[in-house]
## 1
Amino acid sequence: MKFNIESPFFQFMNTLATFIGLNVLFLILCLPIITIGPALKALYTVTMQEARKDHKAIFSTFFRAFKENFFASAGTFLLYLGLALVFLFNAFFWGGQGSIIGTIFLIVFILALIVLTLSFLYIFPLMARFENGLKQTMKNSIFIPLLHSKETLGIVAIQIAALTLCVFVPQMKIFMILLGFSFIALCNSYLFIRVFSCYEEEQTGIPAM
Protein backbone atom coordinates (compact mmCIF):
# COMPACT_ATOMS: atom_id res chain seq x y z
CA MET A 1 0.00 0.00 0.00
CA LYS A 2 1.33 3.41 -0.95
CA PHE A 3 0.88 6.25 1.52
CA ASN A 4 0.53 9.81 0.36
CA ILE A 5 2.36 11.92 2.92
CA GLU A 6 0.85 15.05 1.35
CA SER A 7 -2.69 13.89 2.10
CA PRO A 8 -4.80 15.89 4.60
CA PHE A 9 -4.68 12.97 7.05
CA PHE A 10 -0.87 12.84 7.17
CA GLN A 11 -0.66 16.63 7.30
CA PHE A 12 -3.03 16.61 10.26
CA MET A 13 -1.09 13.87 12.05
CA ASN A 14 2.18 15.71 11.46
CA THR A 15 0.71 18.93 12.89
CA LEU A 16 -0.75 17.05 15.85
CA ALA A 17 2.59 15.41 16.65
CA THR A 18 4.37 18.76 16.34
CA PHE A 19 1.99 20.48 18.75
CA ILE A 20 2.24 17.61 21.23
CA GLY A 21 6.00 18.03 21.16
CA LEU A 22 5.59 21.80 21.54
CA ASN A 23 3.28 21.31 24.54
CA VAL A 24 5.67 18.91 26.30
CA LEU A 25 8.60 21.25 25.63
CA PHE A 26 6.63 24.18 27.04
CA LEU A 27 5.78 22.25 30.22
CA ILE A 28 9.40 21.16 30.73
CA LEU A 29 10.66 24.73 30.36
CA CYS A 30 8.03 25.96 32.83
CA LEU A 31 9.27 23.65 35.60
CA PRO A 32 11.83 26.08 37.08
CA ILE A 33 8.88 28.51 37.59
CA ILE A 34 11.00 31.59 36.86
CA THR A 35 11.12 30.52 33.21
CA ILE A 36 7.33 30.54 32.76
CA GLY A 37 7.48 34.05 31.29
CA PRO A 38 10.00 33.23 28.54
CA ALA A 39 8.16 29.94 27.84
CA LEU A 40 4.82 31.73 27.42
CA LYS A 41 6.39 34.34 25.15
CA ALA A 42 7.99 31.61 23.04
CA LEU A 43 4.76 29.60 22.88
CA TYR A 44 2.78 32.59 21.64
CA THR A 45 5.48 33.46 19.14
CA VAL A 46 4.95 30.04 17.57
CA THR A 47 1.16 29.84 17.86
CA MET A 48 0.56 33.32 16.45
CA GLN A 49 2.94 32.43 13.63
CA GLU A 50 0.85 29.33 12.91
CA ALA A 51 -2.44 31.23 13.22
CA ARG A 52 -1.16 33.62 10.53
CA LYS A 53 -0.34 30.55 8.40
CA ASP A 54 3.31 31.57 8.46
CA HIS A 55 4.64 28.02 8.65
CA LYS A 56 8.25 28.41 9.75
CA ALA A 57 10.34 25.91 11.72
CA ILE A 58 8.38 25.61 14.95
CA PHE A 59 11.00 24.36 17.39
CA SER A 60 13.84 26.62 16.23
CA THR A 61 11.42 29.57 16.40
CA PHE A 62 10.40 28.53 19.92
CA PHE A 63 13.98 28.29 21.23
CA ARG A 64 14.98 31.58 19.59
CA ALA A 65 11.99 33.37 21.12
CA PHE A 66 12.66 31.72 24.49
CA LYS A 67 16.21 33.12 24.56
CA GLU A 68 15.38 36.60 23.23
CA ASN A 69 14.76 39.11 26.03
CA PHE A 70 14.86 36.21 28.49
CA PHE A 71 15.39 38.31 31.61
CA ALA A 72 12.70 40.84 30.66
CA SER A 73 10.04 38.17 30.16
CA ALA A 74 11.15 36.22 33.26
CA GLY A 75 11.06 39.39 35.35
CA THR A 76 7.64 40.27 33.95
CA PHE A 77 6.18 36.96 35.10
CA LEU A 78 7.66 37.37 38.58
CA LEU A 79 6.27 40.90 38.75
CA TYR A 80 2.76 39.69 37.88
CA LEU A 81 3.08 36.82 40.35
CA GLY A 82 4.14 39.22 43.11
CA LEU A 83 1.30 41.64 42.35
CA ALA A 84 -1.22 38.78 42.31
CA LEU A 85 -0.07 37.61 45.74
CA VAL A 86 -0.24 41.14 47.16
CA PHE A 87 -3.73 41.74 45.75
CA LEU A 88 -4.98 38.34 46.95
CA PHE A 89 -3.59 38.89 50.46
CA ASN A 90 -5.26 42.30 50.67
CA ALA A 91 -8.56 40.97 49.30
CA PHE A 92 -8.66 38.24 51.96
CA PHE A 93 -7.48 40.61 54.68
CA TRP A 94 -10.01 43.37 54.01
CA GLY A 95 -12.77 40.86 53.23
CA GLY A 96 -12.38 39.47 56.72
CA GLN A 97 -12.73 42.82 58.48
CA GLY A 98 -16.53 42.83 58.40
CA SER A 99 -16.73 46.62 58.00
CA ILE A 100 -17.79 49.10 55.33
CA ILE A 101 -14.18 50.18 54.80
CA GLY A 102 -13.15 46.55 54.52
CA THR A 103 -15.85 45.90 51.92
CA ILE A 104 -14.74 48.92 49.89
CA PHE A 105 -11.12 47.78 49.90
CA LEU A 106 -12.23 44.22 49.09
CA ILE A 107 -14.01 45.49 45.96
CA VAL A 108 -10.98 47.60 45.01
CA PHE A 109 -8.60 44.64 45.20
CA ILE A 110 -11.00 42.30 43.40
CA LEU A 111 -11.16 44.83 40.55
CA ALA A 112 -7.37 45.10 40.66
CA LEU A 113 -7.12 41.30 40.34
CA ILE A 114 -9.47 41.33 37.34
CA VAL A 115 -7.41 44.02 35.60
CA LEU A 116 -4.20 42.16 36.46
CA THR A 117 -5.60 38.91 35.04
CA LEU A 118 -6.64 40.55 31.76
CA SER A 119 -3.27 42.24 31.52
CA PHE A 120 -1.50 38.93 32.15
CA LEU A 121 -3.45 37.26 29.33
CA TYR A 122 -2.20 39.91 26.92
CA ILE A 123 1.31 40.74 28.14
CA PHE A 124 3.24 37.79 26.69
CA PRO A 125 1.47 37.76 23.32
CA LEU A 126 2.29 41.49 23.13
CA MET A 127 5.93 40.79 23.97
CA ALA A 128 5.96 38.05 21.33
CA ARG A 129 4.53 40.28 18.61
CA PHE A 130 5.81 43.81 19.23
CA GLU A 131 9.07 45.43 20.25
CA ASN A 132 8.13 47.88 22.97
CA GLY A 133 9.66 48.65 26.33
CA LEU A 134 8.26 46.84 29.35
CA LYS A 135 6.50 49.94 30.70
CA GLN A 136 4.71 50.59 27.41
CA THR A 137 3.88 46.90 26.93
CA MET A 138 2.31 46.71 30.38
CA LYS A 139 0.34 49.87 29.68
CA ASN A 140 -0.89 48.41 26.39
CA SER A 141 -1.80 45.14 28.10
CA ILE A 142 -4.15 47.05 30.40
CA PHE A 143 -5.90 49.21 27.81
CA ILE A 144 -6.06 46.90 24.78
CA PRO A 145 -8.31 44.30 26.49
CA LEU A 146 -10.78 47.11 27.22
CA LEU A 147 -10.62 48.50 23.67
CA HIS A 148 -11.27 45.05 22.18
CA SER A 149 -13.83 43.68 24.61
CA LYS A 150 -15.35 41.19 22.15
CA GLU A 151 -12.05 39.38 21.56
CA THR A 152 -11.11 39.68 25.22
CA LEU A 153 -14.35 37.98 26.27
CA GLY A 154 -13.57 35.19 23.80
CA ILE A 155 -10.08 34.73 25.25
CA VAL A 156 -11.42 34.71 28.81
CA ALA A 157 -14.13 32.22 27.81
CA ILE A 158 -11.48 29.85 26.42
CA GLN A 159 -9.55 29.92 29.72
CA ILE A 160 -12.71 29.41 31.80
CA ALA A 161 -13.84 26.52 29.60
CA ALA A 162 -10.44 24.81 29.90
CA LEU A 163 -10.33 25.31 33.67
CA THR A 164 -13.90 24.03 34.10
CA LEU A 165 -13.15 20.92 32.06
CA CYS A 166 -10.01 20.27 34.13
CA VAL A 167 -12.08 20.41 37.33
CA PHE A 168 -15.00 18.25 36.20
CA VAL A 169 -13.49 15.97 33.53
CA PRO A 170 -10.52 13.94 34.84
CA GLN A 171 -9.38 13.03 31.30
CA MET A 172 -8.86 16.72 30.57
CA LYS A 173 -5.74 16.72 32.73
CA ILE A 174 -4.17 14.14 30.40
CA PHE A 175 -5.16 16.27 27.42
CA MET A 176 -3.51 19.32 29.02
CA ILE A 177 -0.26 17.43 29.56
CA LEU A 178 -0.20 16.10 26.00
CA LEU A 179 -1.61 18.97 23.98
CA GLY A 180 -3.70 21.35 26.05
CA PHE A 181 -1.47 24.39 26.55
CA SER A 182 -0.32 24.63 22.95
CA PHE A 183 -3.90 24.07 21.73
CA ILE A 184 -5.30 26.77 24.01
CA ALA A 185 -2.52 29.18 23.00
CA LEU A 186 -3.35 28.52 19.35
CA CYS A 187 -7.06 29.18 19.95
CA ASN A 188 -6.16 32.40 21.78
CA SER A 189 -3.79 33.38 18.99
CA TYR A 190 -6.54 33.60 16.38
CA LEU A 191 -8.16 36.25 18.58
CA PHE A 192 -4.88 37.99 19.42
CA ILE A 193 -3.88 38.41 15.77
CA ARG A 194 -7.31 39.91 15.07
CA VAL A 195 -6.67 42.46 17.83
CA PHE A 196 -3.04 43.11 16.94
CA SER A 197 -3.82 43.63 13.26
CA CYS A 198 -5.23 47.01 14.25
CA TYR A 199 -1.74 48.09 15.37
CA GLU A 200 0.53 46.46 12.80
CA GLU A 201 0.74 49.11 10.07
CA GLU A 202 4.31 49.92 11.03
CA GLN A 203 5.12 46.35 12.11
CA THR A 204 7.40 47.75 14.81
CA GLY A 205 5.17 48.28 17.78
CA ILE A 206 1.94 49.55 19.17
CA PRO A 207 1.57 53.31 19.30
CA ALA A 208 1.64 54.80 22.78
CA MET A 209 -1.77 55.05 24.39
## 2
Amino acid sequence: MERLEQQLRFILELDKQKEIGRQTYLADGARKEGDAEHAWHMAIMAFLLADYSNVEIDILKTIKMILLHDVIEIDAGDTYAYDNEANKTKKARELKAADRIYGILPEDQQREYRALWEEFEAMETPEAKFANTLDKIQPLLLNHASGGISWREHGVKKEQVMGRNARTHEGSEVLWEYAKKLIKENIKNGNIAE
Protein backbone atom coordinates (compact mmCIF):
# COMPACT_ATOMS: atom_id res chain seq x y z
CA MET A 1 0.00 0.00 0.00
CA GLU A 2 2.90 2.39 0.62
CA ARG A 3 3.90 2.18 -3.06
CA LEU A 4 0.36 2.91 -4.18
CA GLU A 5 0.09 5.81 -1.76
CA GLN A 6 3.31 7.32 -3.12
CA GLN A 7 2.05 6.95 -6.70
CA LEU A 8 -1.30 8.52 -5.82
CA ARG A 9 0.45 11.41 -4.03
CA PHE A 10 2.46 11.99 -7.22
CA ILE A 11 -0.71 11.90 -9.33
CA LEU A 12 -2.39 14.44 -7.05
CA GLU A 13 0.74 16.61 -7.11
CA LEU A 14 0.63 16.63 -10.92
CA ASP A 15 -2.91 18.00 -10.75
CA LYS A 16 -1.23 21.32 -9.93
CA GLN A 17 0.22 21.35 -13.45
CA LYS A 18 -3.28 22.16 -14.72
CA GLU A 19 -2.99 25.60 -13.10
CA ILE A 20 0.35 26.61 -14.61
CA GLY A 21 -0.10 29.12 -17.39
CA ARG A 22 2.14 29.50 -20.40
CA GLN A 23 2.67 32.47 -22.73
CA THR A 24 1.42 30.70 -25.86
CA TYR A 25 -2.19 31.27 -26.86
CA LEU A 26 -4.53 28.54 -28.03
CA ALA A 27 -4.90 28.29 -31.80
CA ASP A 28 -8.05 30.45 -31.74
CA GLY A 29 -6.35 33.11 -29.61
CA ALA A 30 -9.09 32.96 -26.96
CA ARG A 31 -6.73 32.39 -24.03
CA LYS A 32 -3.27 31.15 -23.13
CA GLU A 33 -2.68 27.42 -22.81
CA GLY A 34 -1.72 25.66 -19.59
CA ASP A 35 1.16 23.30 -18.93
CA ALA A 36 -1.00 20.18 -18.82
CA GLU A 37 -2.62 21.13 -22.13
CA HIS A 38 0.81 21.65 -23.65
CA ALA A 39 1.97 18.18 -22.52
CA TRP A 40 -1.22 16.51 -23.78
CA HIS A 41 -0.95 18.25 -27.14
CA MET A 42 2.68 17.23 -27.56
CA ALA A 43 1.96 13.60 -26.57
CA ILE A 44 -0.59 13.40 -29.39
CA MET A 45 1.86 15.06 -31.77
CA ALA A 46 4.51 12.48 -30.80
CA PHE A 47 2.60 9.43 -31.95
CA LEU A 48 0.91 11.21 -34.84
CA LEU A 49 4.14 12.66 -36.26
CA ALA A 50 6.63 9.94 -35.23
CA ASP A 51 7.15 9.02 -38.90
CA TYR A 52 8.91 12.37 -39.35
CA SER A 53 11.60 11.68 -36.76
CA ASN A 54 15.04 11.67 -38.35
CA VAL A 55 15.59 8.18 -36.97
CA GLU A 56 13.36 5.48 -35.53
CA ILE A 57 12.34 6.20 -31.94
CA ASP A 58 10.79 4.35 -29.02
CA ILE A 59 7.44 6.15 -29.09
CA LEU A 60 6.30 5.08 -25.61
CA LYS A 61 9.55 6.36 -24.10
CA THR A 62 9.16 9.60 -26.04
CA ILE A 63 5.59 10.09 -24.84
CA LYS A 64 6.60 9.43 -21.22
CA MET A 65 9.38 11.99 -21.62
CA ILE A 66 6.97 14.54 -23.06
CA LEU A 67 4.35 14.03 -20.35
CA LEU A 68 6.93 14.26 -17.56
CA HIS A 69 9.29 16.98 -18.79
CA ASP A 70 7.36 20.00 -17.50
CA VAL A 71 6.09 18.61 -14.17
CA ILE A 72 8.98 20.46 -12.51
CA GLU A 73 7.20 23.69 -13.42
CA ILE A 74 4.82 22.99 -10.52
CA ASP A 75 7.59 24.44 -8.33
CA ALA A 76 9.87 26.18 -10.84
CA GLY A 77 7.13 27.89 -12.84
CA ASP A 78 7.03 28.16 -16.61
CA THR A 79 9.97 30.20 -17.83
CA TYR A 80 9.06 32.05 -21.01
CA ALA A 81 11.44 31.05 -23.77
CA TYR A 82 12.43 34.65 -24.55
CA ASP A 83 12.75 35.93 -20.95
CA ASN A 84 16.52 36.37 -20.59
CA GLU A 85 16.42 37.27 -16.89
CA ALA A 86 14.24 34.34 -15.81
CA ASN A 87 16.32 31.95 -17.91
CA LYS A 88 19.40 32.80 -15.79
CA THR A 89 17.89 31.02 -12.76
CA LYS A 90 15.87 28.41 -14.63
CA LYS A 91 18.27 25.47 -14.27
CA ALA A 92 18.70 25.89 -10.50
CA ARG A 93 14.95 26.25 -9.95
CA GLU A 94 14.22 23.20 -12.08
CA LEU A 95 16.83 20.97 -10.39
CA LYS A 96 15.39 21.80 -6.96
CA ALA A 97 11.87 21.11 -8.25
CA ALA A 98 12.93 17.80 -9.82
CA ASP A 99 14.39 16.65 -6.50
CA ARG A 100 11.13 17.32 -4.67
CA ILE A 101 8.55 16.28 -7.25
CA TYR A 102 10.15 13.11 -8.57
CA GLY A 103 11.11 12.35 -4.95
CA ILE A 104 7.44 11.72 -4.17
CA LEU A 105 7.50 8.51 -6.22
CA PRO A 106 8.62 5.01 -5.21
CA GLU A 107 12.38 4.70 -5.70
CA ASP A 108 12.33 2.76 -8.98
CA GLN A 109 9.88 5.15 -10.64
CA GLN A 110 11.68 8.13 -9.15
CA ARG A 111 14.91 6.99 -10.86
CA GLU A 112 13.19 6.19 -14.18
CA TYR A 113 11.16 9.37 -14.47
CA ARG A 114 13.92 11.67 -13.23
CA ALA A 115 16.24 10.02 -15.78
CA LEU A 116 13.69 10.70 -18.54
CA TRP A 117 13.57 14.36 -17.52
CA GLU A 118 17.38 14.56 -17.51
CA GLU A 119 17.49 12.81 -20.90
CA PHE A 120 15.03 15.36 -22.31
CA GLU A 121 17.17 18.20 -20.97
CA ALA A 122 20.43 16.73 -22.33
CA MET A 123 18.91 16.29 -25.81
CA GLU A 124 21.36 13.60 -26.88
CA THR A 125 19.19 10.55 -27.64
CA PRO A 126 16.86 10.21 -30.65
CA GLU A 127 13.82 10.29 -28.32
CA ALA A 128 15.02 13.43 -26.55
CA LYS A 129 15.82 15.15 -29.83
CA PHE A 130 12.38 14.38 -31.24
CA ALA A 131 10.64 15.39 -28.00
CA ASN A 132 12.54 18.68 -28.01
CA THR A 133 11.62 19.26 -31.64
CA LEU A 134 7.96 18.90 -30.72
CA ASP A 135 8.47 21.20 -27.71
CA LYS A 136 9.67 23.89 -30.13
CA ILE A 137 7.19 23.19 -32.96
CA GLN A 138 4.02 23.05 -30.82
CA PRO A 139 4.14 26.68 -29.59
CA LEU A 140 5.28 27.81 -33.03
CA LEU A 141 2.20 26.19 -34.59
CA LEU A 142 -0.08 27.79 -32.00
CA ASN A 143 1.56 31.20 -32.43
CA HIS A 144 1.09 30.95 -36.18
CA ALA A 145 -2.55 29.82 -35.87
CA SER A 146 -3.40 32.59 -33.39
CA GLY A 147 -1.99 35.31 -35.62
CA GLY A 148 1.23 35.64 -33.63
CA ILE A 149 -0.42 37.16 -30.56
CA SER A 150 2.26 36.02 -28.13
CA TRP A 151 5.14 36.99 -30.43
CA ARG A 152 3.65 40.46 -30.90
CA GLU A 153 2.91 40.90 -27.17
CA HIS A 154 6.53 40.21 -26.31
CA GLY A 155 8.13 41.88 -29.33
CA VAL A 156 9.86 38.65 -30.32
CA LYS A 157 12.49 39.04 -33.02
CA LYS A 158 13.61 36.74 -35.82
CA GLU A 159 17.02 36.06 -34.22
CA GLN A 160 15.29 34.98 -30.98
CA VAL A 161 13.05 32.49 -32.81
CA MET A 162 15.93 31.16 -34.88
CA GLY A 163 18.17 30.91 -31.82
CA ARG A 164 15.54 29.00 -29.86
CA ASN A 165 15.16 26.64 -32.79
CA ALA A 166 18.86 26.16 -33.52
CA ARG A 167 18.66 22.43 -32.77
CA THR A 168 15.07 21.74 -33.84
CA HIS A 169 16.24 20.02 -37.02
CA GLU A 170 18.05 17.36 -34.95
CA GLY A 171 14.77 15.65 -34.16
CA SER A 172 13.05 16.11 -37.50
CA GLU A 173 14.33 17.78 -40.65
CA VAL A 174 10.83 17.55 -42.17
CA LEU A 175 9.13 19.35 -39.26
CA TRP A 176 11.92 21.95 -39.17
CA GLU A 177 11.49 22.69 -42.88
CA TYR A 178 7.76 23.18 -42.29
CA ALA A 179 8.43 25.39 -39.26
CA LYS A 180 10.85 27.58 -41.24
CA LYS A 181 8.06 28.31 -43.73
CA LEU A 182 5.81 29.43 -40.86
CA ILE A 183 8.57 31.58 -39.39
CA LYS A 184 9.17 33.29 -42.76
CA GLU A 185 5.46 33.93 -43.18
CA ASN A 186 5.22 35.47 -39.70
CA ILE A 187 8.23 37.68 -40.33
CA LYS A 188 6.66 38.84 -43.59
CA ASN A 189 3.33 39.70 -41.95
CA GLY A 190 4.97 41.44 -38.95
CA ASN A 191 4.16 38.94 -36.19
CA ILE A 192 7.87 38.33 -35.70
CA ALA A 193 10.06 41.44 -35.77
CA GLU A 194 13.10 41.60 -38.08
